[in-house]
Amino acid sequence: MQPRNMSMSGVVDLAAVKAANEAKAKAEQARAQRQDAGASAAPASPLVIEVTEATFESDVLQRSAEVPVVISFWADQAEQSKQLNTVLERLAGQYRGRFVLATAEVYANQMLFQQFGVQGVPAVFAVLAGQAMPLFQGLAPEDQIAQVLDQLVAVAEERFGIVGPEVDPGAAAEPAEAAPPRPATPQELALGAAHDALDAGDLPGAIQAYRNVLADEPANVEAKIGLAQAELLQRVEGADPQAARAAAAAAPGDVAAQLAAADLDLVGGHVEDAFGRLVDVVRRTAGEDRDAARVRLLELFEVVGPDDPRVVAARTKLARVLF
């Protein structure tokens, strides 16, 4: 990653979330009210917050009129994104309030993920006065990240007159009073029921539950992954791994045998073997056989996760075979 030449090019349209001018006006009004009430006596704002779709307006849009807000999109399955969050949290303390870090887990905040046009995680954006700009994507050395943050702080002051108030990192780390949990939505309840069925080994029930979720919300990433996992476990249930691999070795042209062996490879932790086997089947076949192998490979990609480097490498190999 090279330090970004900070400009307003590449600004993300946040109109679908909230009009930027309205957010800025509300924030300025709130800031004035706090100053009238004696804001110096108020507790310091947290330097690191976890943002959700429900809190995006107050935690990011409104706050961005007073201090640069850096948003880090991350996923539990992407180890690099968790490593990057650790670096950003440390820098937030060092910058002492010149920016606020907001972390957003992509699977729990798919609307934000789509609105920002995130292509993969980790991905980092900044919001200034209700306007968003991409900063960088991927893990980078801490000194390079600091250079980008220095540019962000300079742009915030020079172009928007925004200077974050100095905050004591120790005071900011004090836990705030927990907000009452919000009621789960019907979609969340349905997804929870699907997870429970999968954990209990009720594979038919889990498959149907995940399909129900996807019928209402086709883009739900968590449900897609859960469905792929449940279907994989159902396919290998009761299978004899040694016999399946022997059958695949004896009949390289038997597509069904290769699909079965790939499933067992993946369940056994031999991820690259599973992917390589199916890419080879796609290369050697045509028509319905090729489609069957390609679809199965895409299903296994869902199980492992789109950000896994083994999936990225296998996608590249598949593209070369297909095109």
From TrEMBL:
Transmembrane residue ranges: none
Stored InterPro entries: Thioredoxin-like_sf (IPR036249), Thioredoxin_domain (IPR013766), TPR-like_helical_dom_sf (IPR011990)
Residue span of region Disordered: 166-185
Thioredoxin domain mapped to chain residues: 21-154
Pfam families per record: Thioredoxin, TPR_19, TPR_20
Keywords noted in UniProt: Redox-active center
Protein name: Tetratricopeptide repeat protein
